Amino acid sequence: MREILLGVLASLFFAVTFILNRSMEISGGSWLWSSSLRFFFMLPFLFIIVSYRKGLANTFHELKSAPAPWLIWSFVGFVLFYAPLTFAAAYGPGWLISGMWQFTIVAGVLLAPLFSVRIKDRIIKQKIPVISLLISLVILIGIILIQIPNTDSLSMSAVFLGILPVIVAAFAYPLGNRKMMEHLDGKLDTFQRVLGMTIASLPAWIILVVFAIFTVGLPSMSQVVQSLIVAVSSGVVATTLFFMATDRVRNHQGKLAAVEATQSTEILFVIAGEMIILHIPLPTPIALIGLGIIILGMFLHSYYTKVLNTRSVALTSKETE
């Protein structure tokens, strides 16, 4: 249950990303700067945190000992996650991007067969947790209902350029996150892992910055400030909270799916934030029903996770008797 609460809290801070990315696009900022600046601003904060916790030496040791997995999965988990999200913000409203992003709930469940778990001397391939998938589909129904009232205003460019990149990001984020957890197997804590992945993703962000300078010029001060807010809120606080929650349940696909499903609450925070900051109207009755279904899905995931924990404790007690 603590992991679920951590995931919901992370979603609150993640919501800032969708609201401010849309705000920056409306004011004329380029997605190239919105995506890259976030990770450059994250770096000093993470350095300070990891240094204070005396974890820099271990972090750099892991980076040097196996650079290939770091470069590959950091690119997948950070670059292929955030660059498409900021790109999509140029072609679709915030409610569409944040709503479609919830597809990551189902994507995370479908990725289960790509991973294995070691039990004693045996390596067992993970299976898709059927119950978790069904609950995630319930949440997805709620997300679809939220989108229905707005579909009439969508152009084909918004559909393809605003939705397809988000689907890529929805698969990339859990894939990169899980693969790095699998590679490290608990050798680094959450702060060290986020710092390492940020450092390993820097070559891609540097390339985007160079491209941005020659194509769109330097960012405005407003975009720099908003990117800094996104970096602290979403990049440092939200990412750390979410990775902390997934780290705790990394060996159980059902519980992991439940934690990843907490991202569905982002849409609630985004709608509230856009109403306050960007002055969007109150959601329609159909959208409110969708919100209710999302909350129901989250309750089901929490209940299922509690049942799994109870069974796990019971099995452990029997084994020790």
From TrEMBL:
**Pfam families in UniProt:** EmrE
Q: Which residues form the signal peptide?
A: none
Domain of life, per UniProt, equals Bacteria
Q: Does the keyword Nuclease apply?
A: no
Q: Where are the membrane-spanning stretches?
A: 31-50, 70-89, 95-116, 128-148, 154-173, 194-218, 224-245, 257-280, 286-304
Q: What keywords were assigned to this record? A: Membrane, Transmembrane, Transmembrane helix
Q: What is this protein called?
A: Multidrug resistance efflux transporter family protein
